[in-house]
């Protein structure tokens, strides 16, 4: 990894993207031994690059530790990178030598954790990023002639193939009003959708309210948050589409993607995943057994700003590959949401509240939901019910949640809508300021 001095191109370069696409396709169905060897090779190179060229890692990792590093089993000897430290550090402390804010491109997280951070990528990093996302979409049904609608706040860099009518992209600005989003959607006439599930669901609901039907979409790629089964079925039923899902972030790109059978497989040739336990130890998510914990991700392609053992902020369950689709990587069984979203009980103890959401989404009448804690030992369940739902369902929801947390005060409130956060996402589990007092 020799840092170049040239700046990032203002126009998307296809060469790095195509090279990374070929690699992704080659490794898609590789066997466990080949994937493990590729992962080990890239990880050793990354660790030694970080120690030799990144000021912060020179302080954190001794030269002898980097020289002796042999693979994933040695990761516990390295420090964990927390987003708070990342946010507070000057960019030049985390950038490899030769890279600056002028010859790298910034990507800023949505800030759903409350700590937005900026990642800087080189041209080579960007080639991998674009190829990773493109391969996810191709594997999820994208065709060269599709019209792709991307639901996001910021626009994306145009690519030269659009001049030939290939992979045309249309930006649906999720910071705009619902009416503006719907009008942009109708004007785009998309055939493939990518974005936050709740944003897409809101557009579909508004189309239904208007009596308009758009049947040209054949696939939807959801990512960034969870949608209830009822709401997902409503979106897909209205559009007449199929769906896939990705687990990804600005910092580490794609961590996992669903296969044709719906299993969410880790991208083991691109990331190394560990799951941190309550006692601070970390277990490698290699598929040898089912394990749950706070996810630590090492992105194997990050020359400008290496990320080693990055605490993403989610609590995740990973198990062995049992789906039989042909991909040979561990399966993410559940992403339980931001680890910061902890409810507090009457005795002061905190716990991950995501399990309560499954008590709510099991009711087919629930289209949207949000669990909010305003004070300890209390939870308000906000529900948007599907059309025609019997209002008495709120009582049954309350009893189901109360059974799970019998010492809590449980309120179920029917609402017309659930407001997204400033970043466009809906927090399914939300702890308000003062709830810990």
From TrEMBL:
InterPro entries: ANL_N_sf (IPR042099), CapK_Type1_Caps_Biosynth (IPR053158). Transmembrane segments: none annotated. This is Phenylacetate--CoA ligase family protein. The lineage of its organism: Bacteria, Bacillati, Actinomycetota, Actinomycetes, Kitasatosporales.
């Amino acid at each position: 990894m020799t840092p170049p001095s040239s700046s990032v191109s203002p126009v998307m370069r296809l060469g790095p993207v195509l090279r990374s696409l070929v690699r992704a396709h080659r490794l898609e169905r590789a066997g466990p031994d080949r994937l493990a060897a590729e992962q080990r090779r890239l990880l050793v190179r990354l660790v030694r690059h970080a120690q030799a060229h990144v000021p912060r890692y020179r302080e954190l990792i001794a030269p002898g530790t980097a020289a002796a590093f042999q693979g994933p089993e040695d990761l516990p000897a390295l420090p964990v990178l927390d987003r708070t430290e990342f946010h507070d550090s000057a960019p030049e402390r985390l950038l490899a030598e030769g890279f600056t804010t002028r010859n790298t491109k910034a990507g800023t997280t949505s800030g759903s954790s409350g700590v937005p951070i900026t990642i800087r990528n080189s041209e080579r990093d960007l080639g991998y990023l674009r190829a990773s996302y493109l391969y996810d979409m191709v594997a999820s049904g994208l065709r060269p002639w599709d019209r792709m609608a991307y639901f996001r706040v910021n626009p994306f860099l145009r690519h030269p193939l659009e001049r030939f009518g290939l992979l045309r992209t249309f930006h649906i600005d999720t910071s705009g009003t619902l009416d503006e989003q719907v009008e942009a959607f109708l004007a785009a006439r998309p055939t493939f959708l990518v974005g936050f599930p709740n944003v897409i669901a809101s557009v579909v609901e508004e189309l239904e309210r208007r009596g308009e039907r758009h049947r040209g979409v054949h696939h939807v790629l959801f990512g960034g948050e969870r949608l209830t089964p009822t709401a997902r079925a409503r979106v897909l039923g209205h559009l007449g589409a199929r769906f896939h899902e990705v687990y990804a972030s600005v910092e580490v790109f794609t961590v996992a993607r669903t296969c044709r059978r719906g299993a969410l497989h880790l991208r083991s040739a691109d990331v190394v995943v560990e799951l941190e336990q309550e006692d601070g130890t970390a277990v490698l998510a290699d598929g040898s057994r089912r394990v749950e914990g706070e996810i630590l991700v090492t992105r194997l392609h990050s020359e400008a700003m290496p990320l080693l053992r990055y605490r993403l902020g989610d609590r995740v369950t990973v198990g062995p590959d049992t789906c039989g689709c042909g991909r040979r990587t561990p399966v993410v069984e559940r992403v339980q949401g931001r680890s910061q979203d902890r409810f507090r009980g009457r005795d002061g103890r905190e716990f991950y509240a995501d399990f309560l959401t499954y008590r709510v989404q099991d009711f087919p009448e629930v289209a949207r939901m949000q669990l909010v804690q305003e004070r300890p030992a209390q939870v308000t369940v906000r529900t948007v019910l599907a059309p025609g739902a019997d209002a008495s369902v709120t009582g049954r929801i309350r009893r189901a949640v109360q059974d799970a947390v019998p010492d809590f005060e449980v309120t179920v409130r029917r609402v017309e809508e659930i407001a997204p956060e400033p970043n466009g996402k809906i927090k399914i589990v939300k702890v308000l300021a003062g709830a810990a007092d």
